[in-house]
Fold:
Amino acid sequence: MDAAAHPIPDRHGQNLFSTDRELPGLLGLYLPEDLRRHMHPHFERLGALAGGRLDELAGIADRNPPELEHRNRTGQDVQRIVKHPAYVEMERLALSEFGLGAMSHREETLGWKGRMPAIVKYVLTFLFVQAEFGLCCPVSMTDSLTRTLRKFGSPELMKRYLPQLTSLDFDELAQGAMFMTEQAAGSDIAATATTARPGEQPGQFLLSGDKWFCSNPDAGFAMVLARIEGAPEGMKGVSLFLLPRHLQDGSLNRYRIVRLKDKLGTRSMASGEIRLEGASAWLVGEAGRGFVQMADMVNNSRLSNGVRAAGLMRRAVAEAEFIASERRAFGRSLQDMPLMRRQLDKLRVPAEQARTMVFQTARALGRSDAGEEGAYALLRILTPLIKFRACRDARKVTGDAMEVRGGCGYIEEWSDPRLVRDAHLGSIWEGTSNIVALDVIRAVKREGSLPVLQAHVEGLLEDMPSVAPAFVLALRAAMARACALAETAAREGGDVLARQAASALYHCTSAAAMAWEAAATGSADRLRWAQLALQHRVLPRDPLSPDVMPADWSSARREPSTTAA
Structure:
């Protein structure tokens, strides 16, 4: 039967970049024109892969998870994780062909001379994750480990190990991981029980203890938290170490993968339990400041979590939109039915909020790394905001989008169940929602991030002359109230208010930024989504009255702004 006439629409084979109507305008706003033009064919190619071959590989890898082999066929005690060829091919695409784990640390990637801005990496990740989520965790950890090693590692360590971490040769490159979680400690890093005793060489330590949840456990390198023998209890006694999988003579280091986890989602990627048995590792940075140094890696991974959540939501929404446009029922197209149009908007708003926050946070990261005044304080609050809210939104958006496909959406042959399963990861790893919401309040108290965020939003509000003044005033008033709530939470030690305050800051910031983007790109849809975000996710509403957007929000428009970021 002709696919166009088939009653069950199938989007497989579409280019996930070229069919994304909002992305080109955003790239023109956030990327320099020469870089945007250079990257366009790479975005196009990855979009085609994500909608076709990469999506096929992801489905195969999801159905064929990795297995732990404890001995080789001759009985030697040589552990290895056996990965399906589909997963290995995705590793090659992500790490070697597109250089997602190394591009932020190289002077040339994808033919571009000079260090690639973080926004490019996150746009590529945003496209890649729409097909494959699990592998993007090792990709992120490789990038984050390399960043942390470059920031805190000794010249000797960098000289010895950076070439492997920044290589694009698939046979030579190394992947990264972080081994933090312990059974008793969990998010309470101060309770870390893994010990480190000095080795024979300067900076070398021998680690002993158990790590309970280690993703990518056979990675070439892992950052590990441990307590040096004789160090004080609590956070000040925890140090950071670089743990190589193989020793310099080529033999396996002294730690064992006890077993692999049987997870709800991210089945393609191995996660396991590690037992350190005097494993050789190298001190990174200053002893006793392990958590501070690891926090840089964790925060980078938290931003990546937000990017991945945004990508999952985009895939889920795009699938729902396609079904609604192609499926007919009761003599009408689904997209022409008022309830379906409303349902689609309820999916689009959180998905587009997350996408906007990806761009805003990535831009803050670039400015912070360049040493721009106030940029670190802005990054410090935007990162936990996107990790907290976007990851939680992804759980609902993927589930509600699955409903649009109907019964087929519940069948594992389609992408929907995998999206739903994978979406639950983001709000757990690298800090649960409570931990990350409290980190927002910590940024307010310790980094002075709130006035910086408020000034940033005010700058956006002042640069949107095409937007109705009444809507700008509503955004400004809502942001002031959100900041007041966050101040109350910080001043009164209001842990109970942390989630409420974090959500308020996220929704107000994203709505203002979306309106700014709409003014700069001329996207009427984006402005409407910004209005819906404020109306439905921030402002009080009467649940017993019809939803009506204020009339003056869409009136008294002025000339569009020509200002771009």
Remarks:
- The chain has 16 helices and 13 strands.
- Confidence is low (pLDDT under 50) at residues 556-565.
- The radius of gyration is 24 Å.
